[in-house]
Amino acid sequence: MKLLQTLLFTLFFFSITFSQTTHIVISEFATRGTANATDEFVELYNPMDSVIDISGWKLEYKSASGTTWSLRATIPNNKTIPAFGFFLIAPTSYASSTTPDYRATEWSAGAADNGHFHITNVGGTEIDKVGYGTAIDPEGSPAPNHGTSANNNSVERKAKASSTADSLCSTGTHALIGNGQDTQQNNLDFVARTCNRNPQNTLSPTEPPGGTNLCDGSGIASVSPHSAQGNIPTNFVVKYFRNTQYTISDMRFVMPSSFSWSHSLDSVSITNATASVSIVADTILFEGITFSSDSSEITIRNVTPPDSTASFKIKVQTRCTTFREITTSPTVLVVGSPIPIASVKENDSLGIPIRNGQYVTLRGIVTVGNEFCSPSYMQDNTAGIGMFGTTTSAALTIGDDVIISGRVTHFNGFTQIDNLTLQQTLSQGNEVEPIVLTVSQVNEQNEGILAKILAVTVRDTFGNAISTWDCGTSGRNYRLYESPTAFTQIRADNCVNICGTTAPQDEIDLIGVVGQFDPSAPHNTGY
After folding, report:
1. Do strands 359-368 and 376-379 pair parallel, antiparallel, or not at all (unpaired)?
2. H or E element: which one contains 53?
3. Which residue range is the domain that position 472 belongs to?
């Protein structure tokens, strides 16, 4: 009995002293949906007043009685959670309308109705954990689950100790004050949400925990130009729109540390406002700011970005009592010198590009323009890569020597560049020669490369002869046999010019681009 009394006292002590957390937490999760048992998600919440970089963090799962964690997601580089904001992680089977911030192809196995989730930082330290249902290793006692049959509910972290399923619903008193309740007791910190799931992402409105002073961090901002060339001096203009409900006393900008500028007062000017301006290191401080309009423009002159392609944030913070970053500080996409394509194709142990989510600039010869409808392809003397963007594809012609910028993404094992910008066409009509491969060389090393396979026979995916190239409504797969036991698969998209034509019955030499479709980690098949 004495041991029981001591335990109860300890729980009471923690619930009073540490009710609001100061670290990233698992704020909501679902282990099934209405349509399928793997319509799952995990939502993270940032209860702090600064943006948190979660690049390289991991979401892991283990069963209710399990002792070993299994990977569900590795957060790509350059992923952050806004101050008082959310981050949504989901598998490819997720079906809700809120777009995940990271759709994890490595989340291939579903979570059970009873189990555990935890998140770890890039160093492997556990940041937060929840055990639910009959879990044996929760924080304290397990949280509830949200049922064992099809439903549209979830399990949600409380905003306050007094939060209930009703108060957390969209019209409830605790709906918009975050999910910061954390006593290290899962059963006290979570409730089963019964008014439909509510997954939120980084674009969702921020929610200061417990109704934090909304004047601090108020306002919105944009920057012009939105993109700039690396190594070239540029004047950046930040336009700040104040929230007229609040009267801020001070504002400050934190410039990216890799930007080069004079750090002198002569390089900074402000319109439609007066303030005492000072500069310390990369921070520009506007004290005692008074606005004569609802918006103000701040110009920082002769700023030279680094010669590397990346998205850089100009951090904008405002205060009435305490400096807090605004919901979304403006970012500048800097376009640097091209890097070798092979450096973009480096993968981790799960077959995911190390640069996944990063912006890059590449130079290469176009090997496929719009012939496949999309994607296009380019290659240099190190590797080849796909480029996904219909507008850019329409502007590309085989043989163009181009410089493009875009974001590295990963689609079912295939590395590609999206969010494309065609920076420059240097020349046209360059000769493109395919490399000769055997079917065994259709692999990761040659993904994205223009290739020729010699003396192969076309068959369907069951090994039967075909009379015509039937591409169907969305394309069709075929096999190329080098011998009765050596073959590789090809994809004929429904927009290529062989569709509907007679298929060759004899051996042929075939030219194409090496692609991949493998939805499961480590993504090393499906070429």
Report:
1. antiparallel
2. strand 52-53
3. 435-513
Show the CA angle centred on residue 386, arms to residues 385 and 388, nearest 5°: 150
pTM of the entire predicted model: 0.64
CATH code where residue 224 lies: 2.60.40.1290
Q: Give a yes or no: residue 369 inside a domain.
A: yes
User: Picking from 46-50, 56-60, 109-113, which range would have the lowest pLDDT averaged per residue?
Assistant: 46-50
Nearest CA among 206, 202, 199, 203 for reference residue 42: 199
Question: Are 78 and 177 in a shared domain?
Answer: yes
Q: How confident is the model over 372-407, as pLDDT tens digits?
A: 877 899 999 999 999 998 888 889 999 999 999 999
Residues 6+ apart with CB under 8 A from 213: 320, 321, 322
Q: Are 107 and 117 in contact (CB under 8 A)?
A: no
What is the mean pLDDT of the segment spanning 399-417?
92
Please say whether the beta carbons of 239 and 314 come within 8 A.
Answer: no
* Distance separating alpha carbons of residues 271 and 386, to the nearest angstrom: 45
Nearest one of 402, 329, 345, 342 to 368, comparing CA atoms: 402
Looking at the structure of the chain, the number of domains it has is 4
| Residues 30, 165 share a domain | yes
Q: What is the 8-class DSSP label of residue 271? A: S
Q: φ and ψ at 299, to 5 degrees?
A: -105, 130
The four Cα atoms 254, 259, 264, 270 give a dihedral, to 10 degrees, of -60
In this structure, what DSSP letter does residue 135 have?
Answer: -
Same domain, 482 and 373: no
Strand 268-270 with 295-303, pairing: antiparallel
Length of the chain: 527
Cis ω before 209 (30° cut-off from 0): no
